[in-house]
From TrEMBL:
InterPro entries found in the cross-reference section: FAD-bind_Monooxygenase_sf, FAD/NAD-bd_sf, Flavin_mOase-like
Purpose of the protein: Catalyzes a Baeyer-Villiger oxidation reaction, i.e. the insertion of an oxygen atom into a carbon-carbon bond adjacent to a carbonyl, which converts ketones to esters or lactones using NADPH and/or NADH as an electron donor. Thus, can convert bicyclo[3.2.0]hept-2-en-6-one into the oxidative lactone products 2-oxabicyclo[3.3.0]oct-6-en-3-one and 3-oxabicyclo[3.3.0]oct-6-en-2-one. Is also able to catalyze the sulfoxidation of methyl phenyl sulfide (thioanisole).
One Pfam family, short name: FMO-like
Family: Belongs to the FAD-binding monooxygenase family.
Protein name, per record: Baeyer-Villiger monooxygenase
Organism: Streptomyces guryensis
Residue intervals passing through the bilayer: none
Cofactor(s) named in the record: FAD
UniProt keywords, alphabetically: FAD, Flavoprotein, Monooxygenase, NADP, Oxidoreductase
């Protein structure tokens, strides 16, 4: 990377959000941009998460870009390797590789008030950009709990998102910590080969059957020959999920029927009443993400699996000990404990117009305008920002809506001309978030009686969008300049005064 290279737009990350931004910029005629990627390949979370059994819990035809349909998905719910291959394919089809700088982790981004641009320091050099699009994603930095004694554990330790494929689990005594989306895929994948598996469950999840199957060659041929059939399939999958939203956002009590289906799913596989009691949640279904698996419960019922219905409390030598005092001697500990979602590390590396980092501004909770712009951070946008997550549908739908907003943001700057920047007005940010939080009060995520990773330390839901994807697309169709302050470079301000 050349010293002090300047680009129109710098995109951070090459997962779905970053690659989508790159495609959209090219379609808007913007070719003066770079994609800064800290790893040596594209894929984001689908590159990093390569644990056994890793797959998506959103149907394949909905978990893909509308502008890059894939008629050849092999299964209705695709595995990690297929999604990663899809992202590599998108990178090549849309000729994005010349724009990507691999092994270029962003160390710091600092706003320059005089030049109205971002000064960016990376592990491979420095550059500047008029606009920054942060697409690092909320599922990029693993969270490992600070467990007393962990540093002195003599065995193997790793997080599910940093799987050690060189470590042989066969015959080992393994502790799996966590019962989220990753854990329920890992447990049935490793259970047949480990000697003993001890699952530390702080809170049991609601689990529904995963109705997965291979997509036949005839179906794939039909989608290739008649693309509208794949579009219809995608539309049906999308529509069904849109219809579900009201139960999550306005009428959580209607989800009781779904709870009964989940309980029946458990009873089919778990015959032991004591184990069933451990695995039965005490909160409304949907409060935490509903998980999909047809193999999780059968794996827990196997004789080499123990379920500890208590969180991991400490480690004494090779013994892992739960909060209730129970535990086991193990050879390896696998953390399926999620990610830094409400405290994204990238926020510590973004320094805005007032000299404060985004992490400092967001100390009391993440807030942005329409999930994209933060006050005091001109010409900076985030993809999958605050309150853009979904509890029941495909995040690609939300990403594409944010790409629409990003495209119009860049267009507006072009129309304004000269050295210009747009900074979200604090009042506009506050008004948007007030509306979001008011709507959030009735949702299952806030009223369901659970503590989830959707909530920040103060208990505020800064993660989920409390509406349909259609509503969000409408809200992000275009930039409202009344919600932004226009900034001009000092030299241009003086020229306007002199004129």
């Amino acid at each position: 990377m050349a010293e002090r290279e300047h680009v129109r737009v710098a995109v951070i990350g090459s997962g779905f959000g970053g690659l989508g931004a790159a495609v959209r910029l090219r379609r808007e005629g913007v070719t003066d941009f770079v994609v800064l990627e800290r790893a040596d390949s594209v894929g984001g979370t689908w590159r990093d998460n390569s644990y056994p059994g890793c797959a998506c819990d959103v149907p394949s035809h909905l978990y893909s870009f509308s502008f890059a349909p894939n008629p050849d998905w092999p299964r209705t719910f695709s595995g990690q390797e297929h999604i990663r291959a899809y992202l590599e394919h998108v990178t090549d089809v849309f000729h994005l590789r010349p724009h990507i700088r691999f092994d270029s982790e962003v160390k710091m981004m600092t706003w320059d008030d005089e030049k109205l641009r971002w000064e960016i320091e990376t592990s491979s050099g420095s550059l500047s950009a008029d606009v920054v699009v942060s697409a690092t994603g909320p599922l990029s930095d693993p969270k490992v709990p600070d467990v007393p004694g962990l540093d002195s554990f003599p065995g193997k330790v790793f997080h599910s998102a940093r799987w050690d494929h060189d470590y042989d689990l066969r015959g080992k005594r393994v502790a799996m910590v966590g019962t989220g989306a990753s854990a329920i895929q890992i447990v049935p994948a490793i259970q047949p080969e480990v000697g003993r598996l001890t699952l530390f469950q702080r809170t049991p999840p609601w689990v529904m059957p995963r109705v997965d199957r291979a997509i036949s060659g005839a179906e794939r041929a039909l989608h290739r020959t008649l693309p509208f059939t794949a579009q219809a399939r995608r539309g049906l999958l999308w529509g069904l999920r849109e219809l579900q939203v009201q139960a999550f956002t306005k009428h959580p009590n209607e989800l009781g029927f779904v709870e009964q289906l989940a309980k029946r799913n458990m009873m089919r596989a778990i015959k032991d009443p004591a184990l069933r009691a451990k695995l039965t949640p005490d909160y409304r279904i949907g409060c935490k993400r509903i998980l999909l698996s047809s193999t999780y419960y059968p794996a827990l019922a196997r004789p080499n699996v123990d379920v500890v219905a208590s969180g991991l409390s400490e480690i004494r030598g090779s013994a892992v000990v739960a909060a209730d005092g129970s535990g086991a001697e193990v050879d390896a500990i696998i953390f399926g404990t999620g990610f830094h979602v409400t405290d994204m590390p990238i926020a510590e590396r973004v320094v805005g117009a007032e000299g404060r980092t985004l992490a400092e501004v967001w100390k009391g909770g993440m807030e942005s305008l329409r999930g994209a712009s933060a006050a005091g951070f001109p010409n900076w946008m985030t993809i999958i920002g605050p309150n853009t997550g979904l509890g029941n549908s495909s995040m690609i739908l939300m990403i594409e809506s944010q790409l629409n907003y990003m495209a119009d943001f860049v267009r507006q700057l072009d129309v304004l001309g000269g050295r210009a920047a747009l900074d979200a007005r604090p009042g506009a940010v506050a008004a948007w978030n007030l509306r979001v939080q008011e709507r959030m009060k009735r949702t299952v995520w806030n009223t369901g009686g659970c503590t989830s990773w959707y909530l920040d330390p103060s208990g505020r839901n800064t993660t989920i969008w409390p509406g349909t994807t259609t509503e969000f697309r409408r809200a992000t169709r275009q930039v409202d300049l009344a919600e932004y302050d226009l900034l001009r470079a000092p030299a241009e301000q003086k020229a306007e005064v002199d004129a």
